[in-house]
């Protein structure tokens, strides 16, 4: 096990909360539903990171959200979405969906296929402003075509290029990348006071000097340096990287 520095928090795969409801199998990085850990409430504005498997034809019935930025990343299969804004869509592996709940929205999420599982990350981020108008967007990405780089998934609304990107009401950046074994990069933080949260989707990585295996994650608090080293340690290693503010707005 790598020695941790005071600015690092390790979230091991096996330390996550677990729930099995037959049709739903879920791993919770942070306290959620019946899983409560006072040391795992949130990391900065990152409130929820659920790693879900939903059986064929099953899903989450219509339910409400408000004042939360919700990012959904399918890993396998297809997820069908309907909401009170009139949106209907299907997101698949390679897609990313964002929803600003704002003043309030209801939605449902079901496995689009009756005979295969859908696997996904659902991530909640506290917004930097409350009671905004609800909104929805989705976009497809070619991760295999951009190997050995971190592809930008989500940017802040204030970002200059946000009109052409998926964006949320927070100074947060989401990236995903597939890397060949031995590939090393330096990630330059966008904002010095932000923290970083890195989760290994598949394979193995060393992030900021810490070895991580599949579904392990590392939280990195703000440092006196703005570049973080990342090295893939297995073929086809895949990483999710989130840069986020560490303080929640009132």
How does this structure look, described?
This protein is mainly β and 250 residues long. The protein has a single domain, classed as Jelly Rolls, CATH 2.60.120.10. Helix content is 0%, strand content 51%. The strands form 4 sheets. A 7-stranded mixed β-sheet has the order 1-20-17-22-15-13-14, with no helix packed on it. A 7-stranded antiparallel β-sheet has the order 2-3-4-11-6-9-12, with no helix packed on it. Strand 2 (17-20) and strand 3 form a beta hairpin. The N and C termini lie far apart (38 Å). The model has no long low-confidence stretch (mean pLDDT 95).
* CATH C-level category: Mainly Beta
The radius of gyration over CA amounts to 17 Å
Query: How are the strands of the largest sheet arranged?
Result: 1-20-17-22-15-13-14
Note the gap between the termini.
38 Å
SSE order and pairing:
Blueprint: E1 8-11, E2 17-20, E3 24-28, E4 46-54, E5 59-65, E6 69-76, E7 78-83, E8 88-92, E9 95-100, E10 105-111, E11 118-125, E12 135-140, E13 151-156, E14 166-168, E15 173-179, E16 184-188, E17 195-202, E18 205-207, E19 210-212, E20 217-220, E21 227-232, E22 237-244
Core attributes:
250 residues; mainly beta; Jelly Rolls; 7-stranded mixed β-sheet; 7-stranded antiparallel β-sheet; 22 strands; 0% helix
Provide a brief overview of the structure.
With 250 residues, the protein is mostly beta strands. It is 0% helix and 51% strand.
């Amino acid at each position: 096990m790598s020695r941790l520095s005071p600015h690092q928090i390790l979230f091991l795969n096996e330390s996550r909360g677990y729930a099995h409801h037959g049709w739903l199998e879920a791993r919770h990085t942070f306290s959620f539903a019946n899983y409560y850990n006072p040391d795992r409430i949130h990391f900065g504005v990152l409130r929820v990171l659920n790693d879900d498997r939903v059986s064929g034809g099953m899903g989450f019935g219509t339910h409400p959200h408000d004042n939360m930025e919700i990012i959904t990343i399918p890993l396998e299969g297809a997820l069908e979405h309907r909401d009170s804004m009139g949106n209907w869509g299907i997101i698949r592996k390679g897609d990313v969906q964002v929803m600003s709940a704002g003043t309030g929205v209801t939605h449902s999420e079901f496995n689009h296929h009756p005979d295969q599982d859908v696997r996904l990350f659902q991530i909640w981020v506290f917004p930097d402003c409350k009671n905004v108008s609800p909104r929805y967007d989705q976009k497809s990405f070619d991760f295999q075509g951009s190997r050995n780089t971190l592809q930008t998934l989500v940017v802040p609304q204030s970002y200059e290029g946000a009109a052409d990107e998926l964006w949320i009401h927070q100074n947060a950046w989401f990236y995903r990348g597939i890397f060949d074994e031995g590939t090393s990069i330096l990630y330059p933080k966008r904002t010095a006071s932000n923290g970083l949260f890195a989760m290994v989707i598949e394979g193995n990585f060393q992030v900021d000097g810490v070895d991580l295996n599949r579904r392990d994650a590392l939280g990195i608090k703000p440092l006196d340096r703005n570049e973080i080293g990342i090295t893939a340690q297995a073929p086809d290693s895949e990483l999710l990287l989130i840069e986020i503010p560490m303080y929640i707005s009132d």
